[in-house]
Amino acid sequence: MSIPTFRQVTKENLSVNNPVLVQVLGICSTLAVTNKVVNTLIMTVGVSLVTAFASFTLSWIRNLIARRVRMIFQVLAITFYVVLFQLILNAFAPEVARSLGPYVGLIITNCIVMGRTETFAPANRPLISWWDGFTSGIGYMAVLVLLSLIREPLAFGTIADFPIFPPQYVSDGYNWTIAIMAPSAFFLVAIIMWVFKTNGLKKEEALKASKSASAIGGAA
Amino acid sequence: MSYVDPITLLFASIFTSNIILANFLGTCSFIAISKDLGSSNGLGIAVIVVLVLSSAISWPILHYILIPWNMIYLDLFAYIIVVAAVVQALEMIIERVSPALYMSLGIYLPLIVANCAILGVVLFMEIRNYDYVQALIFGLGSGIGWWLAIILAAAMRKKIDKSNVPAGLKGPGITLITMGLMAMAFVGFSGILRVQ
Amino acid sequence: MFPLSTLAAQALLIGGVSVLMAVMISVIDSIVNNYGDVQLDINGKKQVTVKGGSKLLGTLADQGIFLPSACGGRGSCGACKCQVKSDVGPHLPTEVPYLTQQELRENVRLACQVKVKADIGIQIPEELFNIKKLSCTVESMTNLTYDIKEVRLKLPEGSDLTYTAGQYGQIEVPAYGGIREPSARAYSFASAPQEKDTLEFLIRLVPGGTVTTYVHKFLKVGDKINVVAPVGDFRVHDTQAAMICVGGGSGMAPFRSIFRDMEARGVLGERDIWYFFGGHSVKDLYFMDWLKELAAKYERFHFIPAVSEPGPGEVWEGKPARLIDVLAERFKTEIPRELAKEGYLCGSPGMLDASMEIMRKNGMTDDKIYFDKFA
To answer: Which residue of C has its CA nearest to B111?
Structure first.
């Protein structure tokens, strides 16, 4: 394997390979809370940190344990960081913790966490694994926060609980009930993905070409 | 919360608070597998089995170990380890004992060992304080709800595949829109019964 | 929250339960899931003995071969595709949704779903298992022009590197001067694959370039340097079509490798080749004697040099012209239109695009134009 650099990893995770848009992975644990910006931010920060530290840990012990047992270690490490995050949240933001309900715990089964710790971490060094996990989480965050920035104003007339529409928007029933509910999340992810993919289709072609040829001799 | 009778709970978990369409749990494997009806059916049935099984295992763990020993905050550890281990063991046993059963059920098990739906159902069970019967019914209903959603989606995708979808929306994109429409339809059930 | 001792007891309990579960899995695993040792054949080139019973993805990972996978082997992403040569049973329903009709026909499988139970042969992209990091020693450094150096590296003992002419390697240089991080850049091999123990690169000094500056200013004979290789899929396609090759400046590197490889295999004279090479002035040209010799020796090998602006006092026999103008002109004058042709390009993006444009105008299609673009 060629050794990935920090910059390559960043680029991969933030654009070319954005985990949500390209692979539609890991949305399960967060989609349900995207009707509030604050909840979304906290959840995605959680995912980023858990992925980062779990990757770091798994990478650190990658040469010490056999693969069959590693599966158990992997789950234990991820769970450890999720529980830690949950405890911190309970202590410092009990309100948010309550409104997130079981979803914080569901970070454990987030495909992104699983994927990064299963495939990137065992093949790479701890620090770059940490960075890979973290940037994967940031790419994930970007999409879901965008989603919540659309859903919350439409649903409650607020952004991060700060009113942007007059109170009549909700009290007189001008708000979009559908934006509160589940279907809107599906539609919005699809639309964001559509825009992203259409934009990327051309670039992808070019990328494919340059990938197959890649860089030689020239610039340094 | 008032006591919900099992029949209501069963219908609520299948329709109004469908595990995937209302709570988004288990989307990862849903989007890819729903491309094929046969695979969808198999995976759906496996989810039903595992959900019932994990509810059946987790409830005693919660009520006979975690609560008496005052270690609820370690619930995630307990559930994930025990459920994952049992499902993994089940897969290996089925494979050796019955190849036919393995092909129709066993091969799906690893896909859902760490599926969000499994952990989600168990956590909902804990938060909503279900008794044992309720927990089992909730597991069963959620499983059926997931199975129903995926075979419906798979059936629709068969048609969608033949229609002219914009390039950027092909595959996961149009599936998500299908799921959105299904979610809207399922929201309609909430007029019949309202249970959280 | 709790007394520390309770906490310790509970941590111990969780640890105990985990160990118990791990033991349970291991026991069941060794009883029902024991398939003994099996032979794993990768690309027909590497054979290893592995313990059966695990999924192919994990078995490969144990061998240090990491197929791409986004979901971590749970059958949710479909990234870990690999072609299986031996019979491992029909496609599973968990694989079918991810595979195209063609992939189904070619027995492409998802490595995370296929269990290794008996001897198995697989085909994976060469670079996934062949790429190695080699600690090389600088054997010689020669100035070809005022800004291009030929660097020969001695491969470590027993490294057994195999590559095809046209591929490249990534040269890693350590942190130096004001550059705080090690960096790596890709350079085409100029050596023939038949030379087993050395690698050759043509490296042009790029003003401000991290790696080229290091190579030109700091690297000495005897130094150790890491090369990650082989990478890339630029190569000669095995057809009878005429090869139209364009590579000016240090873009000669892959062609030097390709021509030397073809000559070593005794096939250089067997197809028509036009090689267009050039620079700004006469002092940019190098290896002229070698190329002229090839042209003299092989009737079907045509070497066309170009110089756009001969410097003061330089002698240039031909008319000064840019490489791409010479290419366009030769298409009109000497390359038969009806001849089946393949384009091979190596150089800067601007030169590549211009050359492709000319090739298209002369009836060549994009799928027959192969290139190696400088980044």
So the answer is: C74
Can you tell me the mean pLDDT for C217-228? Answer: 89
Cβ contact, residue pair C94, B71, below 8 Å: no
User: pLDDT-based confidence at A220, cuts 50/70/90?
Assistant: very low
Domain end position, chosen among C106, C128, C150? C128
Is residue C216 located within the same domain as residue C106? no
Give residue limits of the domains in chain A.
9-211
Distance of alpha carbon B56 from alpha carbon B87, whole angstroms: 13
Least confident among B118-127, C69-78, C271-280: C69-78
What CATH number has the domain bearing residue C286?
A: 3.40.50.80
Look at residue C122 and tell me if it is in a domain.
yes
What residue ranges do the domains of chain B occupy? Answer: 6-191
Chain C neighbors of B43, CB-CB under 8 A: 93-94
Report the largest interatomic distance among the alpha carbons of chain A, rounded to a whole angstrom: 66
Q: Which residues span the domain enclosing C70?
A: 37-128
**Which tokens hold the place of B188?**
């309609």
Alpha-carbon span C51 to C40, nearest angstrom: 10
Comparing CA positions, the residue from B98, B174, B36, A115 lying closest to residue C104 is B36
Q: Which of C207, C231, C255 lies at the terminal end of a domain, its last residue? A: C231
The H or E element spanning position C102 is helix C101-105
Complex ipTM value: 0.84
**Is residue C162 a contact partner of residue C261, using CB atoms and an 8 Å limit?**
no
Neighbours of A25 (CB within 10 A): 27
**CATH number of C215's domain:** 2.40.30.10
Residues C276, C190 share a domain: no
Are C115 and C209 within one domain? no
Between A202 and C19, whose confidence is greater?
A: C19
* Average pLDDT value for residue range C245-249: 91
Domains held by chain C: number: 3
Q: What is the pLDDT of residue A218?
A: 36
Q: Does B22 touch chain A (CB under 8 A)?
A: yes
Question: C162 and C54: one domain?
Answer: no
Higher pLDDT, C40 or C159: C40
- Residue B153 exposed, middle or buried by CB count within 10 Å (0-12, 13-18, 19+): buried
Output the DSSP codes for A116-174: IIIIIGGGS-HHHHHHHHHHHHHHHHHHHHHHHHHHHHHHHSEETTEE-S-THHHHTT-
What pLDDT, on the 0 to 100 scale, is given for residue C3?
A: 61
Which residues of chain A does C74 touch, with a Cβ-Cβ cutoff of 8 Å?
111, 114
Contact partners for chain C, using 3 or more CB pairs closer than 8 A, are A, B
- The token pair at A15 is 């654009």
The whole-number pLDDT of residue A22 equals 67
